[in-house]
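User: Thanks for the earlier help. One more: Geranylgeranyl transferase type-2 subunit alpha. Can you show the sequence and predicted structure together?

Assistant: Of course, both are below.
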Amino acid sequence: MLKEREKKLKIYLTSRDACFTKRKEGVLDEEVLLLTQQLLSSNPDFATLWNYRREILLHLETVRSEDEIQRLYEEELSFLEACLKVNPKSYGSWHHRGWVSTRLPRPDWARELSLCERCLSLDDRNFHCWDYRRMVVRVSGVPVDQELQFTDRLIGSNFSNYSSWHYRSTLLPLLHPGSPEAASPQREPPTSSACSSPSTSPQTHSHRVCEEQLLKEYELVQNAFFTDPNDQSAWFYYRWLLGRAEREEMISCVYVSREGERVVVAFSRPVNALSVGLLLVVDGQPQQVNWRSAHPRLRHSPMWICDLPPGTISDTSNEHNLTVHWTERHTHRDCALYTGRSESWCRDSATDLELFRSELSVEKSSVLQSELQSCTQLLELEPQNKWCLLTIILLMRALDPLGYEKETLAYFQTLKEVDSMRTSYYSDLCSKFMIENTILKMEYAEVRVFSLCEKNLSTLCHLDQLLLVTHINLSSNQLLGLPPQFAMLQCLEVLQADDNAIENLEGVYHLSKLEEVSLRNNNITQLSDLKILTTCPRLARLDLRGNPITQIANIQSQLAELLPSITELLL
């Protein structure tokens, strides 16, 4: 047996070396085509030989008639089927098949779809085959509704077919597109209806699904997870259904301050203002300004800042009109700075943008309420089911995030007990939801004070929504640091972050209005941890009591030298 294997290996290596030699010599004939075929039949993952084979086929195209080329490539497809039997997940075989199919003078796309169905019936998670099928569908123009019926068949035969659920999520927005987001102040109103004709360009689609179809999907997926509550495929799809569509790309806020003559622009998503074409116009005059993000580490940021030339808007007796143009998206935002005002802003609130939840129709709200009851009943039968617990939380978020806040916190606690390996993930997700709720409460109260003390926060997010906040209280949480995104709190005057485990103040960067910082009972250990505070010129009060740094000899004099603006230092 060993000698036979050694003999086969010797033949294989000899043939391989012969191929390399012929390729170096530029030989492109049928003899080499046969030689590469013998090698690839036993090892279809030899990328170099597939490349050589394509070179030969391209050469033969130049010396053969169309009918001969058709036969040549049909034989190649038959050979590839044999290779896929050796390894159904061969990168090289699927890639080469895609190449051959596009070179065929008269391709048989029905045959290719049939091959995909056969392969997926053997392994419904063969992502190579799924990728190839999507290419065939795109090139051959298979109708979207036909592909959706294909996912119906696969899901009907196996609810655990994750790939089919995922493929379905890409098809539904094309076949049943939802209404576009409401026009923003600087855009023309949309003209399409709630369930417009199917889009053929997924790259330009908003990924929304019309409500009528969405309600049908809830019923389909509920059947799946009630059949097998522990299978994750249907739960993941259900979570996608409950998710919000991608936000419209827009300027969400323009803030202007006479102090420092500064303009801050916030976007609905992170951008690179240096490359998207941002133009600032003040009183009809375009301004030559340099845009920068709130922190040097944020190359793509939802917030960008610029300083106007001295004297542009400093006189409080003058009124000014500013316009920020986002030329890449053909959109703009206006902001007026009135006489006697030191600052002004024009923004869409989180509630206006439906940032943390979507407005529900009576019908959809009723259906989701019914879904919540069904999941609650399922949880009574499966009290340890983490997917059911998480879905209940998401349903509560979709229905009424503030009204269900107490119940949500209780379910998160149960989740951490049931799925202890993912405790950190659930803590971060819970922190995200608590921050969202607090932003909504702040906006309803129309205040600029943000308090999140004693919420067990493990992370900070949505900091771009806190641009206008002047006072923030993050005390008694589980924060380890203030991230670079914290520098987006450009109006912040007072920071309270006592009783955490903070050891990194990276985000307290160039906050020009910051006057007070309280960091009692954290983990600030050395002078270099506080060096970032030198970028905050108005800082006058610093409380470091209960930090290891207070044990350093002569720390008071060192801090006085490092931060000369401080008039009240508590150690």
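User: Great, one quick takeaway?

Assistant: Residues 181-205 have pLDDT under 50 and may be disordered.
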